[in-house]
Amino acid sequence: MEDITQEQPKVISEFQKIIQANMLSHAYLIDDASSQVRNQMAIWIAQTQFCEHLVDGLPDQTCQKCQNIALGDNPDVLQVTTDKQSIGVDDIKFFKKEANMTATQGNRRILIINEAEKMTSAASNNLLKTIEEPEGNLMIILLCNSAKQMLPTIQSRVQIFHLSNKSNSDEIADLQKVGYKEATAKLALTMSDVKYLLSMNGDNYQALHGAIITWLKRCNNRQPDSFIDVQTDIMPLIENKSHQQLFFDMMNQIFSDILSIRYNLDNTKLVNEDILSNRNIPTVVEFSEELFHAEEMWKSNVAFQAILEDLSLKYVN
Ligand SMILES: [Zn+2]
Predict the structure, then answer these.
(1) Arch. (CATH architecture) of 4-162
(2) How many whole angstroms from 56 Cα to the centroid of ligand 1?
(3) N or C: which end of the chain has fewer CB within 10 A?
(4) How far is the CA of 74 from the centre of ligand 1 (A)?
C-alpha cells in the first residue's frame, strides 16, 4: 500500500499545521479518493494522537502504538464498518457507549465511521448531538464518498477535508489482477469505489457496460421488448449488492455523458454517441431523476430486479 503521506501530501500538511497550532477539532469529515484511502487517512490521524515517536507532530507509523492502531488493536480507536445498506441509530448508540467504556480516563478516544453516508437520519441526528456537545476527549472522524451526501446540519458542524482523487497505482494494479485493462481501471475508478470494482472481474465489467448501452438503445427506440434485455443480458451479470452499486454508478455516468454530448462538452466517459437521440433534454433529465429515485428505493431495500424492470418500463415511454 502506498504511504498515505505521499499519496495525500496536501491534506497531510494541512493536518500537520493544525496539530502544531494545537487547533485540533473534535469532528472531521473526509471525502473523495476511495474508501481505502479515506480509511488510511483516518488511521493516520488516529496515529497522530497516540504515536510514541512523533516527528514535528507527525506519527512514525512504525512504533507499537501506531501498528496497533493500523491493526485495529487499540481499544481507544473504534471503527464503525457495516456490510448492511444502512447504519442505524442503534449502531451509533452502541459505538458511542463502547467509546465511553473503553476509554481509560483522560485518554483521547477516536470514533471512525466508515461509509458515513449510510447513516439513517435518526443515526445522523443522534451523532449530531455528540458533535454539538462533545464528550470528553472524543474525536469523531466521518468518512464518506462525498460530503454532500451528509445532512446539512452535520456538514456545517464538522471540519471537512477533501482528499485528492488522483488514481491510486495500487488500486489500478489490483484491478488489473482481476482482468481490468489499465485504461478501463483508471476510468472506472473515477466513477466507482475500488471496493465495488474488485467484486467484479474486468470482463464482466465490460459486458455490463455493453449490456446497459444495448438496453438503453432499445429503450430509445421504444422497443417494448427492451424489458427482456434486463432479464437476459443485465441480471445475469449482477450477482450481489456491490454489482448493483456498479450498475447505478455506470447509469449515472451515462446520463451525465449524454447531457455532455447535447451541450457539446468534451468530457464523456462511457458513451461517445447520443444513445437517447429520440428523447429531448427535459426527458433525459427526467430519466436521470427516475434513476436517482430508483437508487433511493434500492437503498431502502426494494429488490433490485423490480427496480430495474420499473425503470425499463419508464424509459420505453
Ligand atoms: Zn508511532
Answers:
(1) 3-Layer(aba) Sandwich (3.40)
(2) 12
(3) C
(4) 13
